[in-house]
Amino acid sequence: MTKAAATVVLIDDDALFCRVTGSLLRSVGFEVQVFGTALQFLYCRRPEPPACVVLEVRLCGLSGLDLQRELVRAGIDIPVLFVTQHGDIPMTVQAMKAGAIDFLTKPVDEQRLLEALEQGFLRDQALCEHRRRVARLRANYELLTPCEREVMSCVVSGLLNKQTAAELGITEKTVKFHRGHVMRKMRAPSVVELARMAEFLCIVPLTVPGNGGPWSVDGWPTRVQVGCHENTYAPAGLVAGPGRRRFRR
């Protein structure tokens, strides 16, 4: 990774720690932003990826753990690394369950800090790439007509054209027509790749008797797991539930 492209956000009211740690991080090529309170950071624009927040637990006003919860609630995806003098086991468990990279105690070992930051940068890059890919797929998906979306759901369920026609109440010729459009608009070179795209978009395949599918038409997931991070995404109109609409022949 090019360190000059990575940003470390220090959020700590300990001026000495910020000065010393900031000097260390700049010396190895990182960009550094310093905030004395959590609210100051919330009012600022999120730094461009890759970035990582180095956060103290005890802060004036909003605490470090409160800030972490607020970031999750607001859907602000940025890795968090806690470095504190006031940590205990319950705090550590809470922070790690909420997705923290690590929970280090002051005085922090420089090498361990740099290693933890590297993990944070890698996670942020992965999240950024995931968001870009989902955005591209979503844009392609928006080009599909309602008929094509229904056909796509059947295709990624493993249904044959004849089965899809029976499921949707249309002719097999019409299924082939829509299927071709789906593959072109989604830019899918194969059905296998189309299924991967559907997984990224949280499109739930049908459970057809006898096909052993793991999904149910009763509902569909709204979360995509990426490493230790969950992104909530529920595009409207992806899959009809029970009583699916039938197309006219």
Explain this structure to me?
This protein is of the alpha/beta class and 249 residues long. The protein has two domains: 133 residues, Response regulator (Rossmann fold, 3-Layer(aba) Sandwich); 91 residues, Arc Repressor Mutant, subunit A (Orthogonal Bundle). The chain is built from nine helices and seven strands; from the N terminus they run βαβαβαβαβαααααββ. The strands form two sheets. Strands 2-1-3-4-5 form a five-stranded parallel sheet, with helices on both faces. Strands 6-7 form a two-stranded antiparallel sheet. The longest helix is centred in the middle third of the chain and has 32 residues. The protein is elongated and about 75 Å long. The C terminus is likely disordered.
Tell me, what is the CATH class of the largest domain?
A: Alpha Beta
Overall domain count:
2
What do the pLDDT scores average to? 82
Computed CA radius of gyration, to the nearest angstrom? 24 Å
Shape: elongated
Please state how the strands of the largest beta sheet are arranged side by side. 2-1-3-4-5
State the end-to-end CA separation: 55 Å
Which CATH architecture of the largest domain? 3-Layer(aba) Sandwich
Q: Helix/strand/pairing class, anyone?
A: alpha/beta
**CATH topology title of the largest domain:** Rossmann fold
CATH superfamily of the largest domain: Response regulator
Work out the helicity level. 40-55%
Q: How many β-strand runs? A: 7
Low-confidence stretches: 208-249
* Helix/strand order: EHEHEHEHEHHHHHEE
State the helix count.
Answer: 9
Major beta-sheet overview: 5 strands, parallel
Binned strand content: 5-15%
